[in-house]
Amino acid sequence: MVLQVDVLGPLRARRDGVEVALGGPRQRELLGRLAAARGRAVTTAALVRDLWEQPPPGARGALATAVGELRRRLEPERAPRTPPRTLLTTGAGYALRLDAGALDAARLEAAPTTAPTGPGAGDGADDAARLLARLGATLADWRGQPYADLPGREWVLAEREHLGELHARATERYAAALLRLDRSAEAVGVLDAHTRSRPWRERGWADLALALYRERRRGEALAVLRRARALLAGELGLDPGPELVQLERDVLTRAPHLDLPGAREGDDARVATRGADRVVVELPPGESGRLRTSVDLARTLAYAGGQNLAAAQHRRLEAALAAEASGDALLTARLLGAYDVPTVWTRSDDPVAAAAVVALTRRTLERLGDRAGPALRARLLAVLALEHRGTRDGWALQAALEAERTARTLGDPVVLLLALDARFVQSFQRPGAAGERERIGAEITELALRHDLGAFTVLGHLVRLQASAATGAFADAERYARAAEAAGDAHGSPVARMLTAWFWAMRTAQTSTAAQAAAAYRGADRELSRVHMPGVREGLLPLALLCLRLRHDRPRPSGAGGRRDGTGRALPDPAADGGWGPHLPWVEPVLALDGGDPRRALRLAGALPEPPADHLREVRWALVAHAALRLGSPELAGRAHRGLSGSASERAGAGSGLLDLGPVGAWLTRLEPLLR
Asked: Do 276 and 424 reside in the same domain of the chain?
């Protein structure tokens, strides 16, 4: 038996690769606290202090009970009265003993995150390649905020700060290795996301500017440095350090040392000419055909579904970046536009890769200028809108609209379908747009059926399913669900049934008991686990179970004595089903209220950002409304009312086709007394 514990994101434990059900929140916090000790013993007194804000009189007994339950879950095969091997009792407390490399946080701590110093310091090419492989594996462990699903207790905050710092250093050294290996285009993608999430780190800004400069994007490099200067001064009251100041001078003067010596030597591509502002790389014979084949394979992998989806996305990006490195903007554009794989969800499965595709597409459009014909330009604009989804950025919506306008003049069904898909994902910028999505879905379906384009036929039915469910037209939604399943079966796509399984679970939640609905949702989650769609799946099951509980208007159950539904069965506890993922900020106030801490709930709710413009926006606003009603807060109620009012004729969350928090109009009515 191999047990792994992961804390770089929502807490989880896996035994032989299969996730372990850890039980309730107390067991999860206990495991997290012991994991934070890295194998050292933690005293009972420290555990009581760290797991309870105000320890009750029986806290030590409750701790012992939690230890026993967690042991049973971590070592289910352990015979009675045999000593535990993982969660050990020490003289004054407990310790979690794992095999070497079985804790992701320990792997991050062991990663080489500090650059060499002294004479001759720096990674050679071979060292950089080895470093890239090692750090790449380490960074792949990062799934988001450490201990994301645990309350923000003092020890959790300290761990998040410590691990976040290590992750930042690892990311920066990974990017430095990319730069050393003349892979600056990839470094741009990594560092762009890094500087957005950690804008106070000067190292990230400096390397991003250098990467852009080496990509012959001198103007963007200068813009990055000036943005860093403005941010540091405006938000932190700091002057940029000497490195940033000198780098700006060097970029302005095109200092020779900024270019990598011997750039691209040993690559399959060959440097033909190097001028002051550009590098032209000639592809060897047959290379452009190989890259086109690579994108064709990526498209095939994506249609096959399963775990191939991640490979498909990365293969597509690698091929396009290789084309860009050759200096052939037209080939780059064709490779980007050839990946005509539809999407039906507004959260990306790989935000870093998506951001890299967007940046590459924008650069390519700029470089092509008038050389991009209407069809190619429409494809590239659709790529921009499809990859930059779930936001309120007007330029992405405008890209979708221009792509559609152009595509309607071309007579190419695939280009028009891509543009309509882009219109669909960007329609979430406007609340209450189910009618618009129904029209888009109807046109996608008709066009795809006429031209026998199976993947887009599935897309059209799923879009119509979501639009119908949003307005409560469930008979129509059921008809579209069956049509999507039939189209998916006919064209060999497994994704349709994995998504409709969630729709049928939602229908069970609307018509059956909480226990039956919870079982249906867990079955749907098992189906969805067969494809690589973290943008959909991450945090979805706990959120669906929370919506189920709130629809039954019950507080969270506490153990066997918790509240029950109309059949006498205990209502599900979503915290027992894994991490909340991106939904955590909107769930935390509800959890704080369940834990009897209204002050913390009000503070958390008051600090909430505007929800993303995606399928679940109304669910997040309904959670804010729920917190406002329990807190009796007019200010919070007003914010929730404004957020929901644009969708008054729809149902909160049902437009996802996955879960439902009831009519938005009912939430607005419940909020109104607080607004008087």
From this structure: yes
Residues 273, 252 share a domain: no
Structural domains counted in the chain? 4
- Say what the pLDDT of residue 554 is: 57
pTM: 0.59
Strand pairing class (279-282; 18-19) = unpaired
Q: Where are the alpha helices (DSSP H) in 491-633?
A: 495-511, 514-528, 534-537, 540-551, 584-594, 598-606, 617-631
Residue 352, domain CATH: 1.25.40
122: left (phi over 0), alpha (psi -120 to 50) or beta: left
Q: Pseudo-torsion of CA 624, 627, 629, 631, nearest 10°?
A: -140
**344-396: pLDDT as tens digits:** 999 988 787 788 889 999 999 999 988 888 999 999 999 999 999 999 999 99
Verify that 217 and 91 share a domain, yes or no: no
Name, in order, each residue with C-beta under 8 angstroms of 613's C-beta and a sequence gap of 6 or more. 346, 390, 391, 392, 428, 429
Domain hosting 280: range is 269-429
Intra-chain end-to-end CA distance of the chain, in Å: 61
Question: Which tokens sit at 67?
Answer: 């230890």
Residues of the chain with pLDDT under 70: 1, 113-126, 234-238, 261-315, 553-578
Q: What is the pLDDT of residue 670?
A: 96
From the CB of residue 353, how many other CB atoms can be counted at a distance below 10 Å? 19
CATH number at residue 84: 1.10.10.10
Residue 497 has which token pair? 């049934």
* Sequence-ordered alpha helix ranges (H) in 451-528: 454-470, 474-490, 495-511, 514-528
In a domain, 114, yes or no: no
Assigned token pair, 568: 């006498």
Residue 306 shares a structural domain with residue 368: yes
Of 429, 446, 481, the position where a domain reaches its end is 429
CA distance 264 to 37: 45
Distance set, CA 235 to CA 228, 231, 393, 437 (Å): 10, 6, 23, 40
Task: Among 218, 239, 260, give the residue marking a domain's end.
Answer: 260
Measured CA to CA, the distance from residue 296 to residue 275 in angstroms comes to: 34
- Between the alpha carbon of residue 442 and those of residues 397, 427, 460, the distances in Å are 20, 15, 6
For residues 228 and 278, membership in a common domain is answered with no
Half-sphere exposure at residue 124, Cβ-oriented, CA atoms within 13 angstroms: 3
Cα–Cα dist 153/197, whole Å: 22
pLDDT recorded at residue 521: 95
Residue 454 lies in a domain: no
Question: In terms of domains, do 251 and 371 share one?
Answer: no
pLDDT number for residue 442: 97
User: Do 425 and 279 belong to one domain?
Assistant: yes
Alpha helices in 140-268 (DSSP H): 154-180, 184-197, 202-214, 218-236, 242-253
Amino acid at residue number 496: A
Q: Amino acid letter at 104?
A: D
Domain match, 303 and 226 both: no
Q: Rg of the chain over CA atoms, in angstroms?
A: 26
Q: Would you report the helix, strand and coil content of the chain in percent, each value rounded to 5?
A: 65, 5, 30
- State the CB neighbour count (10 A cutoff) for residue 234: 9
Helix (H) or strand (E) holding 292: helix 287-304
